[in-house]
Design goal:
The chain is built from nine helices and no strands. The protein is mainly α. The longest helix is centred in the last third of the chain and has 31 residues.
């Protein structure tokens, strides 16, 4: 079966956790996102004790680590970084003008996306699949993405402390302009890899929806970041040289701008 009671429990957990977005609109896709993934990882460990294998335990723990790291990082930035709040004032909508019905739609849509994102590991548990090479390869790729995203955030924070008014072009940012988004995409690619040999038939549609959805969100986020950086640093010759020589999302792939792709909304 594609839809199961277990998926419903994961959806309800994501709904409860991401409901913090009603306090602050952006939290639906920031704090609510990170902590929903962590909550779903924990819930799978609790719901599927008998079906757990070494591989699925590792994947679920990685979900928890990923979600807590991201949620914690965003929480510290949200509540403790005054310079960030000052710089982002006016850039991020407060959601006060967003109709309540629209917030409901976003809340539900986000929760559904978060469930589909972890569905590759969920279906491995639901189908009582035994470990194979793909689950360990996938877990290794997930770990790589988590480390890459974490290092990128640390490097950006250090660079901004040295010079808060300059764009970041050091460390991983020499290879790609959005290494944190790259790490995110690698993490979720690992989840898909981990599902190979365990997910069956129509279940792949749910897995694919989650993967395509988060890749779209990452490119959409890169577009918003590019527009903001062009506004802030567009007159800087060093920045112009940087954006014309360093790919925006994937190293060695000559995609230097996504600003013109207006369909990347979000």
């Amino acid at each position: 079966m594609v839809f199961t009671l277990g998926l419903l429990w994961l959806f309800l957990a994501a709904m409860v956790i991401s409901s913090i977005g009603f306090k602050n609109y952006v939290w639906f896709i920031s704090l609510g996102y990170g902590f929903s993934i962590a909550g779903e990882g924990l819930l799978m460990l609790l719901l599927y004790g008998k079906q757990l294998t070494v591989g699925t335990v590792i994947c679920c723990i990685l979900f928890i680590l990923y979600g807590c790291r991201l949620g914690g990082y965003l929480a510290v930035r949200e509540f403790g970084d005054n310079s960030y709040k000052k710089n982002m004032k006016g850039e991020i909508k407060d959601g006060k003008s967003v109709p309540f019905g629209v917030k409901i739609a976003i809340w539900v849509t986000c929760a559904l996306l978060y469930v589909t994102q972890v569905s590759g590991v969920f279906y491995r548990l639901h189908n009582n699949a035994q470990d194979n090479a793909f689950v360990f390869i996938g877990a290794a790729v997930m770990l790589l993405g988590l480390v890459l995203e974490s290092v990128a955030d640390i490097q950006k924070n250090k660079a901004k402390k040295v010079n808060p008014r300059r764009f970041v072009d050091t460390g991983l940012y020499r290879l790609v302009r959005c290494p944190n988004y790259l790490g995110e995409m690698i993490f979720w690619t690992g989840v898909v890899i981990s599902a190979i040999g365990a997910v069956k038939g129509w279940q792949w549609i749910i897995v694919a929806i989650g993967y395509i959805g988060i890749i779209f969100v990452m490119f959409s986020g890169a577009r918003r970041l590019e527009i903001r950086q062009n506004k802030n640093y567009g007159s800087d010759p060093e920045y112009q040289k940087y954006v014309k020589s360093v790919p925006i999302m994937v190293p060695f792939i000559p995609l230097y701008s996504v600003e013109k792709y207006k369909w990347l909304v979000g």
